[in-house]
Amino acid sequence: xxxQLRPAFVLLVLMTLITGGAYPLLVTAxxxxxxxxxxxxxxxxxxxxxxRGSSLLAQRFEGVQxxxxxxxxxxxxxxxxxxxxxxxxxxxxxxxxxxxxxxxAGSPTKPVPMELVTTSASGLDPHLTLAAARFQASxxxxxxxxxxxxxxxxxxxxxxxxxxxxxxVNVLALNLALADNRLPAPSE
Length: 188
Hints:
Blueprint: H1 2-34, H2 36-39, E1 43-45, E2 51-54, H3 91-103, E3 127-129, H4 130-144, H5 148-157, E4 159-160, E5 168-170, H6 171-179
Antiparallel strand pairs: 1-2, 3-5, 4-5
Helix pairs in contact: 4-5
């Protein structure tokens, strides 16, 4: 019996060292060398260099002077990330969407973009389409006392083109530009 257990134990120790030690260290080293920013969380810093968040994660913004991200089923907490798992036929989902449409003051003449009333699959999507950002622009411009044209140019400056899908705006980057007063100069 010892003859059979010894190779199994040696293999267990060897595979533990390879898959639990060597491989993770190798992957970490390659990530740090080739993709340091992404491997360290894609952190976003303000003008003073302080970490304000990650470009990969949505976070809550309170107040009319800020752009708001998609709703989060996990309340923007990474531990509880995930979708609500409510089926399209679930009345609770319909009630949540209806309440969000009312909250955004949507109407038949001014429909609310779908991403502002539905949660993303992760619950932490940091991006909005240009249409969803523009939907909020008049509120933000009025709250900050700035010209809507300047805010529109700020939106265009923060537009990102992903490999697949529509162009998007990172809400954290956009709000940091507003916080640091990095608005485009007024057009002549």
